[in-house]
Structure formats: structure tokens, C-alpha cells
Amino acid sequence: MGKLLLLDIDGTLLNSHKQLPTSAREALAKARAQGHELAIATGRAPFMFEELRKDLNIDTYISFNGQYIVHKGKTIHKEALNTETLQSITEFAGQRDHPLVYMNELKMVSSIDFHPDIDESIKSLKFPHPQTEEGFHSDNEIYQALVFCEESEERQYHETFKEVDFVRWHRVSCDILPKGGSKASGIEQLIRATGHSIEDTIAFGDGLNDLQMMEIAGISVAMANGHEKTKAIASHVTSHVDEDGLAKAFSHFGLV
């Protein structure tokens, strides 16, 4: 059995222009031909990378940082945020003028018609500012929410809502996840379906939401453009994503 390759999207698969480098595309194809299994591991919602996974013919993925997992096109795990807790966070954030975005596997909805922090962070993913929809977060399973505040304002959320995790991914935005939810827990769920051992996993990432995944994987690879904390715990640091970093890492570990 080959390796299970767990691939973050932003800053790992996609370069700083949100494009897939030709070298990465070729490396993925060669690795698959060598018998390795490809899986995406991302904080994004499934609808946000549907085009990419179809383009790469990848039907196994960990999304929402572990809250929604699909193996070969079949959903094998999903865990939504508690509705009452989410409503409490919504009210708490509203008192501080911090907007939220709510996401399920199909779409995202904003708590406010427009906010510059939402616009800045969501546009960094090449998506437009989401629209509002009355009752969306109370009438649907929400697998991940985003609260928009600066890092200096984040601690109050950790201290007040200990039943969930807040993971910063952008200058003005934090993911809100069920307690203990992470790409690491997603890997544990996924390997039960694939038959791989944890030693057969190689995780590729760059951000703070990749830390736990990289700690649990058999081998971890950080991109040179990654966060310093991510690079510090990685088994190997490859080149910048804009300098064929993913392809170079595949070559380094003999995957191609």
C-alpha cells in the first residue's frame, strides 16, 4: 500500500495567486501513478474547493478542519456546532460589533449585509462577500462558523466559550469549531476508511490550522511560506509554494 498524502489547499496546493502550479499538478499525477492516495485536508467548506477536487480527480477529503469528511465520494463523518452555543456566540459577537459567517457543506451565509473584515478575508479565498439569510444558522447544521475580529480581541472568546475551539486563519478572522475538532481528528477518522496506518500518512501544510495534523501524521512537510510555528514542528520544510515547493517535497520523499 502506498502513502496517504494529506494536502492543505491555500499556500500548499495553491500558490500566492490562488493557482495550482504546473509542477504540483504533475507531481500529484505521478504520485498517484506510483500507488499513493491523494486527499485534501482543509479548513475550507466542500463547496469552496469543488472545482479543484474535480480538476484533480480527488474524491477523498477532510473539510471544515475535520468536521466533514468524505472518502471516495461518500460522507463518513460529520459534526455540527451546537445550535444553542452558536446562538450564544452570535449574541456575544453582536454586542461587540463582530460579524459572523455560517457555513454548511453547500454554502455560507453572513450575519450582516456587508462588513469590510468579511470582505477582506473571504476575498482572499477568491469568494465574494456572502449574503444574509434569515434563520440560516438555527435551521441548518453548521459545521464551521467564522467570527471576525483582530487577534487582540480573540482571547475573550476563548475564555467565554470553552466548549468550542477558535482557530485563527486570517488577520481578522477565526474559525469556530466543535471542541477537539481538527485536521488531526479528521486523519484518525479517515485512516479507518482507507486502511492506512498513521505511519503511512504524510501531511503537507502551511498554516496554524495545520499544526495538529502535522503533529499526528507519520511525516509532516511545511511550506517555506508557512507560519513559523508550523515550520518549527515539521519533519521537513520545503521551498515556497511559488517556487515549486510541493513538487520538490514529493521528490525529496521519493513519491514521484
Automatic annotation (TrEMBL):
Name assigned to this protein: Cof-type HAD-IIB family hydrolase
GO MF assignments: hydrolase activity
Keyword Acetylation recorded: no
PROSITE patterns for this protein: COF_1, COF_2
PANTHER family: PHOSPHATASE YKRA-RELATED (PTHR10000:SF25), PHOSPHOSERINE PHOSPHATASE (PTHR10000)
Segments crossing the lipid bilayer: none
Alphabetical list of CDD domains matching this protein: HAD_HPP
Keywords annotated in UniProt: Hydrolase
Protein's UniProt keywords contain Hydrolase: yes
InterPro entries, per database record: Cof (IPR000150), HAD-like_sf (IPR036412), HAD-SF_hydro_IIB (IPR006379), HAD_sf (IPR023214)
Lineage: superkingdom: Bacteria
Any matching Pfam family: Hydrolase_3
